[in-house]
Amino acid sequence: MAASGPLASTRLKPNILVTGTPGTGKSTLSQELAQRLSLTYLSVGDLAKEKELYEEWDEEYNCPVLDEDRLIDELEDTVRGGGCIVDYHSCEFFPERWFDFIFVLRTNTATLYQRLERRGYSGRKLDENIQCEIFQTILVEAKESYLPSIVNELESNTPQDMEQNIEKITDHLRNWKPNQ
């Protein structure tokens, strides 16, 4: 697959977005991929915390609200070089030109519920994240925001799924070629 977008022709390695509902295994998969494939792992949540890239505090969900414009400015130079795996639970605000592959992780709701409860999610926050997975919200966002040919849905319920996903993603990367 040839790269697309104005920045793709200058990249020697592809950029990947791993996205999905919180608790689907994005960070675990992304970190493992970055290590195995010598790619740069970029956790949006960690970067936002480190650089204080927030607009305000959301009292209802007890979490900060990301300043998407500041985040884009912060990541632009790093992503331009290629070879990045970006990990975040949303995707529609990233520039389309940044990514050669989008992987949306999906988890069955019983497994996801347990994972989120272990993280301390409860009440409305827990319910809305489960509904997000049921209604495939992140997958729909990805398909509406990026070329369908670069959006891939991956099951992420077990450690075996993660190994299979690493193999699938590695195969995609083997077939990627920068524009000449």
Helix content: 40-55%
Number of strands: 7
Q: Largest beta sheet: what is the strand line-up?
A: 2-5-1-6-7
Q: What is the overall number of helices?
A: 7
The value of Rg in angstroms is 16 Å
Helix and strand run: EHEHEEHEEHHHEH
The biggest sheet amounts to: 5 strands, parallel
**Distance N to C terminus:** 12 Å
Overall shape: globular
What are the low-pLDDT stretches, counting only 5+ consecutive residues below 50? Answer: 1-7
Proportion of residues in β-strands: 15-25%
Mean pLDDT: 93
Q: Which structural class is indicated by helix and strand composition? A: alpha/beta
Short description:
With 180 residues, the protein is α/β, with parallel strands linked by helices.
How would you explain this protein's 3D organization?
By secondary structure, the chain is of the alpha/beta class. The chain has helices spanning 26-37, 44-51, 68-80, 109-118, 123-134, 137-145, 159-175; strands at 16-20, 40-43, 54-58, 63-66, 84-87, 101-106, 151-155. The strands form two sheets. Strands 2-5-1-6-7 form a five-stranded parallel beta sheet, with helices on both faces. It has a two-stranded antiparallel ribbon with strand order 3-4. Strand 3 and strand 4 (63-66) form a beta hairpin.
Note the topology.
Elements: E1 16-20, H1 26-37, E2 40-43, H2 44-51, E3 54-58, E4 63-66, H3 68-80, E5 84-87, E6 101-106, H4 109-118, H5 123-134, H6 137-145, E7 151-155, H7 159-175
Parallel strand pairs: 1-5, 1-6, 2-5, 6-7
Antiparallel strand pairs: 3-4
Helix pairs in contact: 1-7, 4-5
Features:
single chain, 180 residues, alpha/beta, five-stranded parallel β-sheet, two-stranded antiparallel ribbon, 45% helix
